[in-house]
Structures are given as C-alpha cells and as structure tokens.
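Bench log, entry 3. Co-assembly request; chain sequences pasted below exactly as received.
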Amino acid sequence: MRDIWYCYPGASSWALKEVSIELGSGEIMLVAGHNGSGKTTLLKIAGLIYRPTRGEVSVDGCDFWMLEEAEKIMVRRRITYIHEEPVLMRGSVLENIMYPLRIRGLGREDAAMKAKTIMRELELMDLADKSTKELSAGQSQLVAIARALAAEPELILLDEPFAHLDSWKSGLIAQVLQARRRNGVGIVIASHGRGELPEGLEPDRIIILEDGRIRGMKG
Ligand SMILES: Nc1ncnc2c1ncn2[C@@H]1O[C@H](COP(=O)(O)OP(=O)(O)OP(=O)(O)O)[C@@H](O)[C@H]1O
Ligand SMILES: [Mg+2]
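Structure output for the full assembly:
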C-alpha cells in the first residue's frame, strides 16, 4: 500500500491518511489503535474490498485497481479479509466452509474432506451439520476463520478475531495462525492493543494507527 488516503463516500474527513506499508509473507502483523483509528478501513483496503481514494495498492508489483475484472477475481482469491461481525451464508456450517473450495472448482467430496480437516484443526466438528442461523457470536467467528483458511489464502486479514472467543479457542486460533505463518502465509490482525492478543501469539511487526495515520511501527 503506497501513500493511501481514504475518505468514505459523503464523509467530511479522511479515515486513512498517508498510509504506506508492505504486507509480507510468513509474518504476523498487528494493526493496533483505538476505536475509529482506521484499522478496519486499512484491512479492507489491504483486502482489496475498498478502493483507496488516493494512493496505490499493488500485488506482486501490479497496481490492483488497474487490472481487468477477470484478473481482479484471481488476485482476490489469494487474499481473505475476515469481518469483525462475519456474515455467513444460510445452510450448514460444513457447507459454508466448503463454499470457497467449491467455487475454486473442487468436487463435493474433495471439498467436504478438506473442509473437515480444517474443522478438526479448529475443533469445530460438533458444529458440522448445524445451521449457521443457530450459531453464537464466537462460533460464527470460528466458522468464518475456518472458511477463510479452507481457501488457503496467501494473506489473511483478521479484524478483531479474538473479540468473541474464550481463552481456549483464542489459544487454538493463535496456534493455527502461527502454523500458517511457518508455511509462508502473511497474517494481519486488527486489535485495539497488544493486550488483546492471546498469550503466545507474537506479532513480528506492530503498526499503531491514530486518527487514520501511522503513529508508530515496531519490528
Ligand atoms: N461507513 C462509514 N461511513 C463513514 N465513515 C466511516 C464509515 N466507517 C468508518 N468510518 C469512519 O472512519 C474512521 C475509521 O473507522 P474504522 O472503522 O476503520 O476504525 P477502527 O479502528 O476499525 O475502529 P473500531 O476499533 O471501533 O473497529 C472513523 O472515524 C469512522 O467514523
Ligand atoms: Mg474496526
């Protein structure tokens, strides 16, 4: 992200100002800051959901927003943003986790097998047949994380992923994310502060946002 500025449509002030960062593979970055400091906006721009008002987002050296639609679809499949309040589709938990695999062309059986592997890793097998309408906030968060991991993205952007999770599940997600980091996946976590992260989750870099600007960087 190079010199990114973002203003929400109709808003009178900038939500992000002059933000430049490179998101690398095989590292965990924490984006910290108070409510309204711009964390979600930054993640959605990095997640190729919002187009910056000014500045450039490039992936492998290509300016993403200048790509053809078909190319954008391919690039977007490599990057996943997990919403603060994830939205799941109707249907069962298993179907939701299979979905990204199905749209990538996997057959039903292979998709189900792969989805179940992730569900076992996240200890979600008990929920496989449950309807997504019947999930608690924390369970929805876990299913959204499982669905994102199933797609094996190169970059995962998680917005307040631990907000609804108990300490056991937070610790489990921390382990799962660290295993992905070892495999070269880039991980970005938005959180109010370092203290919100589960014990044992060590970010390689910390970016501190204040009023839409980067106020500090560690690592
Ligand atoms: N849809 C929107 N329309 C207009 N302004 C918005 C919108 N969403 C966010 N903003 C503004 O943009 C700024 C950054 O918001 P953002 O959601 O990125 O903050 P955040 O750091 O994620 O906060 P939180 O910790 O509360 O999730 C805030 O000033 C906010 O008021
Ligand atoms: Mg936010």
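Residues 32 and 193 are 5 Å apart (CA to CA). Residues 2-88+153-218 form a domain with the Rossmann fold fold (CATH 3.40.50.300).
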